[in-house]
């Protein structure tokens, strides 16, 4: 009997040593700045002057350096609890405190990765209700993060430092809210309603201002629009997905210009979704069916594309969302590869 106890004690001691080793091997916290770019994965390839470089990927808290405590690991081991990982990431955003949010319909929630404070949480409830299909983000002036849930047909907000979401009451009935963007110059919130083929605008008090767009193919009309981005020029860029183009509007909703058309070659579109613009005026468009990111200047001239279909680093499988930070980091929701990939703009600062 004593011998059995001794063996059990030794086994437990060895288990503790093993967990301690794992705990001490955590990856460093990523700061997501261009010095982390990978020199051997660049676009375009040499001898052309590179503009985009690969910077890494993550699909779990551990890959961001967010480690569970030693005792949490032991409890999870004995309880058989599975490790946390991304399932179907659709959108990503990073706030000024380096907190990363990932919308994941695969788990019916929003992953919140706080790499500075070594904290992770899954936000999947609003009161007693469960989230279903979070698909897009927008950041407010006070560090709050808005997101849409297309199945619930609602918009929610996560306030700065909070691990819970609350519903935003607009007094407006959405059909299928998808893309969402915040204009810091006015405090206005723009919400794409894909099923209604329009964009809805609300003021800083969440009061209705206007809608613009209707179903059609003419300028200012939409055919199942998806994502949206408000740039520093106070212009609104919309992925007009099944018209295979990007449309640009003024804050008022007045049409400005459009670029893109259906086609099979670079510079054309097959299923444009995520859209973002960097501080140099480059427009990035995620094309899900081409499994690539296309880069244009603000006039809509094609510059380059990076990524192709695959599962290796720097390749995509039905990507969807994109977010660009002011430090030139580009985050892409690589949906069916169950990960977020990070790239950097390393070209000329024009």
Furnish the topology, listing elements before pairings.
Blueprint: H1 2-24, E1 38-43, E2 52-58, H2 70-79, E3 91-94, E4 99-104, E5 109-114, E6 119-123, E7 125-126, E8 129-130, E9 134-139, E10 145-149, E11 154-158, E12 166-167, E13 177-183, E14 188-193, E15 198-202, E16 208-212, E17 228-230, E18 235-240, E19 245-250, E20 255-259, E21 272-277, E22 283-287, E23 292-296, E24 302-306, E25 322-324, E26 329-334, E27 339-345
Antiparallel strand pairs: 1-2, 2-27, 3-4, 4-5, 5-6, 7-8, 9-10, 10-11, 11-12, 13-14, 14-15, 15-16, 17-18, 18-19, 19-20, 21-22, 22-23, 23-24, 25-26, 26-27
Structural key phrases:
five-stranded antiparallel beta sheet; 9% helix; 350 residues
Distance between the termini: 76 Å
Total number of helices: 2
Measured by DSSP, the beta-strand proportion falls in 35-45%
Largest sheet: 5 strands, antiparallel
Write down the secondary-structure element order: HEEHEEEEEEEEEEEEEEEEEEEEEEEEE
General form: globular
Side-by-side strand order of the widest sheet? 1-2-27-26-25
Percent helix: under 10%
Structure, described:
There is one protein chain. The chain is mainly beta and 350 residues long. Helices cover 9% and strands 39% of the residues. Mean pLDDT is 88; it is low at 9-29 and 70-81.
């Amino acid at each position: 009997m004593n011998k059995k106890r001794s063996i059990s004690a030794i086994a437990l001691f060895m288990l503790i040593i093993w967990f301690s080793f794992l705990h001490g091997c955590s990856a460093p916290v990523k700061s997501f700045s261009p010095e982390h770019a990978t020199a051997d994965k660049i676009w375009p390839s040499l001898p052309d002057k590179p503009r985009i470089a690969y910077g890494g990927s993550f699909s779990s808290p551990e890959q961001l350096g967010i480690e569970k405590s030693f005792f949490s690991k032991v409890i999870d081991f004995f309880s058989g609890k599975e490790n946390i990982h991304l399932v179907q990431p659709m959108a990503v955003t990073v706030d000024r405190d380096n907190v990363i949010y990932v919308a994941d319909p695969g788990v019916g929630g929003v992953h919140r990765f706080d790499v500075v404070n070594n904290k992770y949480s899954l936000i999947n409830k609003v009161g007693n209700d469960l989230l279903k299909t979070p698909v897009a983000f927008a950041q407010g002036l006070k560090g709050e993060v808005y997101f849409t849930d297309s199945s619930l047909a609602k918009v929610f907000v996560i306030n700065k430092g909070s691990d819970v979401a609350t519903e935003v009451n607009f007094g407006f009935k959405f059909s299928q809210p998808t893309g969402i963007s915040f204009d810091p110059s006015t405090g206005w919130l723009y919400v794409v309603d894909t099923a209604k083929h329009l964009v809805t605008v609300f003021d800083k008090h969440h009061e209705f201002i206007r809608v613009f767009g209707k179903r059609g193919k003419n300028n200012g009309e939409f055919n199942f629009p998806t994502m949206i981005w408000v740039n520093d020029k106070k212009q609104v860029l919309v992925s007009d997905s099944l018209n295979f183009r990007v449309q640009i509007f003024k804050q008022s909703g007045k049409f400005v210009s459009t670029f893109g058309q259906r086609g099979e070659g670079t510079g054309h579109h097959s299923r444009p979704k995520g859209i973002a613009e960097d501080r140099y005026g480059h427009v990035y468009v995620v094309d899900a069916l081409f499994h690539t990111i296309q880069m244009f200047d603000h006039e809509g001239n094609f510059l380059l594309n990076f990524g192709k279909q695959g599962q290796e680093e720097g390749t995509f499988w039905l990507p969807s969302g994109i977010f660009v930070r002011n430090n030139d980091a580009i985050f892409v929701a690589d949906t069916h590869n169950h990960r977020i990939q990070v790239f950097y703009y390393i070209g000329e600062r024009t």
